[in-house]
Amino acid sequence: MRRALEEDIFAGTLKPGDRLDEQSLAHRFEVSRTPVREALRQLSASGLVEVRPRQGAVVSVITLPRLVEMFEVMAELEAMCARLAARRMSDKERADLKRFVDECEDFEKKTDLEGYYAANKVFHDAIYDGSHNEVLADMTRSLHRRTAPYRRHQLNRPGRISESLSEHKEVVDAILAYDADQAGRLMARHVNVQGDVFTDFISTLPTGYVA
Known about the structure:
Blueprint lengths: L1 H10 L7 E2 L1 H8 L3 H14 L2 E4 L3 E4 L4 H25 L2 H19 L3 H18 L3 H21 L5 H17 L3 H12 L3 H10 L7
Antiparallel strand pairs: 1-3, 2-3
Helix pairs in contact: 2-3, 4-6, 4-7, 4-8, 4-9, 5-6, 5-8, 6-7, 8-9
Protein name: Putative GntR-family transcription regulator
GO molecular function: DNA binding; DNA-binding transcription factor activity
Pfam families: FCD (PF07729), GntR (PF00392)
């Protein structure tokens, strides 16, 4: 149940600010309210859900300063993954990474937002794994999941999919060239949201996504 609710949040089916009614969830999953409360408790501990007085559980809404901080940390973690991947990826992992970015390009050509988002996750996961540092990969995935609803909506900005694909290709070129420093710089730039780009990004978020 917890995993299913996580996926709903990450996919945008449940949006920040949406109320999570225990009785409705118990009916949906055909369970008593006790496991529902436990799932909500676990989601609250991870920061995906918050419990509000007299409102019950709702999908967390992040403040703008907090969102900026999360993207800053995310950029550094992903940059470290890219640096290590450039040094440590096997030949097969490098070939797979190239294939994954080609799959991203297929969805970009079709302007398939959902397909691109799924392929984008596979691409980033390959770099996390390619770092061959499980602690780093776990930390990065954890924050990636936390920012997933916001990263997803970043792709709504006109032209962003094409920009994202171009940035992917630059990162891959650096990794394939074993250029760790360049791979890290390019990945940090790819993930971080700054200046006018951040303003455009915020404009794509539905009302209630940030406070």
